Amino acid sequence: MIKAIVTDIDGTITDSRRRVQWEAVEAFRELQDNGIQVMIASGNVLPVALGLHIFIGLNGPIIAENGGIVAYGEEVHKVNSNQRPLEAFEYLKGVLPVERLFTDKWRETQVALRLSVKEEDVRQALSGWDLEIETTGFAIHLMEKGQSKMSGVKEACRFLGIDVDEVAAFGDSDNDVKMLRGCGYGIAVSNASEAAKGAADYVSKEPHAGGVVEGLKWLRLL
Fold first, then answer.
1. Is 8 annotated in the active site?
2. Per-residue pLDDT tens over the stretch 81-91
């Protein structure tokens, strides 16, 4: 039995211009009215994710910074540290023209690099550093080993007192893969990366929020 869903934000419930689509908001409110917890999982910082959570009116935990931070109610749990990623960034500055994102002033568990450098160059420079390195459509994320949206989902489930098998995940990017595989059900929207589609139990015909609604209907939650 599905007791909660967790959804990525960018590209999953937003359109190609990063605008939240209303059909997702309506669907989430209907789920909550039916007793289903709705969680968001983002690579973005907590202040951004929290603002979205508040104004949509969601009731579940917030997973920010690719699982590095989990917030529920007024409790905020830092699952990971940014010490090693910061050390890696200082090293990278000596070998590559790297820059951090503007939002990194609020980032607490990772370092997000602008896409002015190539992921393969970053990986080569940091070989042996034992870090997670993931690229989204907006940044290259340097994280502690083991940090992922899925690790954040596990912590969120601890808050809720449920099992990860009772969660359905929705996503579109490579950094959603572990979450799509690790939850009870994984749904990739049609605009998802090939890796995300390969990790999913169901791939929607519709993109973005339309695909989320389609997936919820496939799960018989709507």
1. yes
2. 999 999 999 99
